[in-house]
Every structure is written in C-alpha cells, then in structure tokens.
Amino acid sequence: MAYTKCITLSILLLFTLLGAANAEKLPATDVKRCAGNKPFPLEVRVAGCIKPPCIIYKGTVQVFEIDFVSHKFVTNVTALVKATTLGVITVPYELPDEVAAVCPNLMYGAYCPLYPTEDVTYYFEFPIGEYPEIGVKIEIYLVDQDHDIVTCFTCDIKVKKGVSGNKVAELN
Length: 172
Ligand SMILES: *[C@@H]1O[C@H](CO)[C@@H](O)[C@H](O)[C@H]1NC(C)=O
What we know:
Number of helices: 3
Organism: Drosophila busckii (Fruit fly)
Number of domains: 1
Subcellular location: Secreted
Main location: secreted
Strand content: 35-45%
GO cellular component, one term: extracellular region
Keywords: Secreted, Signal
Order of helices and strands: HEEEEEEHEEEH
Bound molecules: 2-acetamido-2-deoxy-beta-D-glucopyranose
C-alpha cells in the first residue's frame, strides 16, 4: 500500500517537474541564414514570436535566446545588429556595451573563454528605441576577438507603437 502510494507520488512529481521544464523554455523561432555561408545558430528563440515577421513594440526590450556553437577558442564575443529596410539600406544598430557583450550574458552558468564545439546560450536583450514603423529585416551576428563571425542569422521584424496605443489604432 505504502509502496504504491510512493510510486504514485513519484510519478506525479515527475510530471510536475517535466511540466515546469517545458513551461520555461520558449518555442523556437523560424529565423533565416545570413548570406555567404556564415555559421548559423543551433536555435533562436524570440520571445512571443514563432513565425516572423515578429511584432516588436517601441520602448520595450525584446528578448532573444541564441543557442550557438563556437568553432574555435574564443575569449571575447560581441553582438552586432544591422537593419535593412526596403531591401536596400543597411545601417548598423548601436547597442549598449553591456548588451552587446556576449560573454557576461551567457545563460546556465556558462562563461568565456569558449572552447571549440562548446555550445552556449546568449541571452540578448534587444532595446527597441525609435525605429521606423515599417517592416525591417535585422541581421544579428556575433563576432569574436579576431572579428571572425561566430554565428549569424536574420529575422524580419515589424516595429509598432506601445501596446495601448496599438489597440486604439486597431479599432480605427
Ligand atoms: C571585447 O570586444 C569588444 C569589441 O571589440 C571590446 O569593446 C571589449 O572591450 C572587449 N572585452 C574584453 C573583455 O576584452
């Protein structure tokens, strides 16, 4: 009797733990490769977006979780963002230093240097400032201490006004 109860409790506990683990992990986002055969991340999770274009609100911070593998010994990794509008203009997007520094923003206790084949997750908090309210293709790439590209992907986004302002606009 006590034995059965114990098993039942263990099973319940197992399902609870599995449920918690699933709830924490964001779903993968369908991001695209960069031109020129650059290394592609293992997976990218843009919070709240599975299928781009991702709707991103001005004045917010959009979280990206980027799983990537380093292919060499790297001591320093920096994130860079380029924005392409209407397929022509490509402008670098200035990131605050503490956001662009990949090493201090690795998840699950990982830290630099990174060794070849090591896979890690960069928690990228993309600050959305003033941005034209049109579709933009952003290219996010990480470079190492030698300016070699560690990983690169693109994601279509659509920047909108804050949530409340947006609701009013939708009623019109
Ligand atoms: C890493 O690289 C960035 C960009 O080149 C530089 O600003 C930063 O100081 C470097 N950090 C370290 C710890 O070397």
